[in-house]
Amino acid sequence: MNMPSFSVIGANFLLLLGFSVGLDSISPLQSMKDGDETLVSGNGRFELSFFSPGLSKNRYLGIQYKNMPATTVVWVANRSNSTGNLAIVNANNSVVWSTNTTTGAKRPVVQLLDSGNLVLIDQEDGNYLWQSFDYPSDTLLPGMKLGWDLKRGLNRRLISWRSADDPAPGDFTWGVELEGNPELVMRKGTAKFYRSGPWNGIGLNGGPDLKPNPVFDYDFVSNKDEVYYINTYKYSSAMLRMVMNQTINSRQRYAWSKETKSWGIYASVPRDYCDTYALCGAYGNCIISSMPVCQCLDKFSPRVPDRWNALDWTQGCVRNKPLTAKEMDLSNMKGTMNLEECRNKCLQNCSCMAYSNTDVSGGGSGCAIWFGDLIDIRQYPAEGQDIYIRVNASEIEIAESNRRTDQNNDGRKDELELPLFEFTRIVDATSNFSIHKKLGEGGFGPVYRGTLQDGQEIAVKRLSRDSGQGLNEFMNEVMLITKLQHRNLVKLLGCCMIRYELHCIHGEERMLIYEYMPNKSLDYFIFDQTRSKQLDWPKRFDVIYGIARGILYLHQDSRLRIIHRDLKASNVLLDEEMNPKISDFGVAKTFGKDQTVGNTGRVVGTFGYMAPEYATDGLFSVKSDVFSFGILVLEIISGRKSKGFFHPNNSLNIILVAWRIWKEGNPSDLVDASSRESCNTSELMRCIHISLLCVQQHPEDRPGMETVVMMLGGENALPLPREPEFINHEGPLELPDLSSNELLRSLTNKLTVSLVQPR
């Protein structure tokens, strides 16, 4: 029997029959014209209509949510041309798309269901002849099966749009792969990008955090007829969708908020750095709470140590003591064995490399056996699935002996334990990095305020792709600050690293999560005429003293001797009580026990705070930080910026102004007007005196921070500072014949900016 013809007519075509706008179905010989005519689901949630995506002028037929502030398309019919029965026809009467159905029907009708599924149904028996859920685009809706219909050879998978303006199939895909143990796999082109791991009876073993929740149910079905993943609504009022986003190579689950009338990201994959497929190579174990994240399994060592130590883990690890059996790249599953039977099965085959249960529910059952290198191993802090890996018996005996010895050994290796936050937690905490959550913009990228689900407030430093901070500097900041604990240093709560493309910097996210400082940074107050009034002199002195104690801890009292190299007002944060906390350790350097001076060909930092020997010759030491501290003290006192300011005749800067004021004995001329009335004159004069000692031209003339702290807290006589020299001047400078007030006006009104390698 011949199928009746359905058609959906493109623009400029007349209707074949009358058509009521807003119905949920059309019958044979009816048509739908590009314009105001749509099919609307019975519940009013979805509509089938023509649209143009983004900036494109091309017209497409698709299913989208109805009455949304912004167009939200969940399925596109004519991503590519085909032939068949339900068809889209262009102005030349050529078929652009069709269902390509051959099954006959007595009373066919096209209907848009409440689920968003467009179906070609035979009203005679209710059978579906075709449905859009079998041919998804980039979106998975609740009730849609993702995977295989083995009887029909049908593979349902998501394929991203090529771009926001082009719904043609992209190269970012997600679907069920049947080789070995069936599992969900995301691919970037042909390269495997992320895998979920097989279903273990409770969930996907690569996502143990996917737990029962009040919003949706999920399941994985695997039998001789079908293998698929599905999720369903628990409440019909909920609106969820899962989208393949090729722009950032992420699969995102969205939930609609009635309050904000917008889509919010409920979850994303990859969640973090360890979700990257085969990140750690063969027998490499990814531990998101470790630094670095990749560790060789016990009894294994890096295959290429130099590359491993350089944070390239792709070559993986090898056994310390090779097995005699040949390893084969195979796996096998047995559905009826218990764990002990699975173990025996593996031991009977010398090619078996590992085994585990396939179903961990009800005490565990089933058997999965691996015969090749183990790739894509990840360790979870809790609720992960155990896997048993084969090693030589002799190594087990040695390990047991070493374990007994270690129990009596008090020595412990220092280990870095830093929480790594999932990317989705940070996205949720910052409302997807909303502009309203942005605290400011630093040299290495923006900083956002966030709130975790437990109510804890955080500050998220998101490394910009255009910043100068690379992986080494990011790791440097992480490694240093996790070893530091002081009330005047900002506390690092954790970090987040996620790579969207393997071995590709583009698409990589690196973030540091700090304790939230409600009063932002010091420069936010001291350089603003209104906000500076919140910092009277006693509070300014407390800030100066707190900064000094923080630097002293870095130089002398911490486990590592650290030179900050970028002390400045914007890198001093203020808590709710205006207590200072030093931040930003991206360019900091550690010194050995006997090391006093370092040298670098790459001068980084902020000009205006740099010591002369560092700016000109790349020499840095604890005295470099002392110089920066002296500049910072003058800025706190005066409320004026020092960075990059010079008089046109190269003979005037804030150091020289402070020198003239100190020589004249008029400290109130330098102090910021907002703190002048509350100022303690002797304390102020002492601070100016100390700052001039700190900014002396030659590092050997500057005091150490231990001396600075004692001078700030004492009343003993201070040594006299040497007269300032300009950075490129060989001897004392001749100051203009101006009063201190005229000098200050000149500093404020006539200076030009000169920046070297700004941040």
Automatic annotation (TrEMBL):
- Which topology term describes how it sits in the membrane? Single-pass type I membrane protein
Report the principal subcellular site. Answer: membrane
EC number(s) per UniProt? 2.7.11.1
**Occurrences of domain Apple (ranges):** 317-392
**Keyword set for this entry?**
ATP-binding, Cell membrane, Disulfide bond, Glycoprotein, Kinase, Membrane, Nucleotide-binding, Serine/threonine-protein kinase, Signal, Transferase
Report the superkingdom from the record.
Eukaryota
Matching entries from CDD domains are given as:
B_lectin (cd00028), PAN_AP_plant (cd01098), STKc_IRAK (cd14066)
Q: Name all Protein kinase domain ranges.
A: 433-726
What general EC class does the enzyme of this chain belong to? transferase
**Signal sequence coordinates:** 1-22
| GO MF, one annotated term | ATP binding
Show the catalytic activity.
L-seryl-[protein] + ATP = O-phospho-L-seryl-[protein] + ADP + H(+); L-threonyl-[protein] + ATP = O-phospho-L-threonyl-[protein] + ADP + H(+)
- Pfam families reported in the protein's UniProt record: B_lectin, PAN_2, PK_Tyr_Ser-Thr, S_locus_glycop
Instruction: Give a yes or no for keyword Disulfide bond in this entry.
Output: yes
What does the sequence similarity comment in the record state about its family?
Belongs to the protein kinase superfamily. Ser/Thr protein kinase family.
Protein's recorded name: Receptor-like serine/threonine-protein kinase
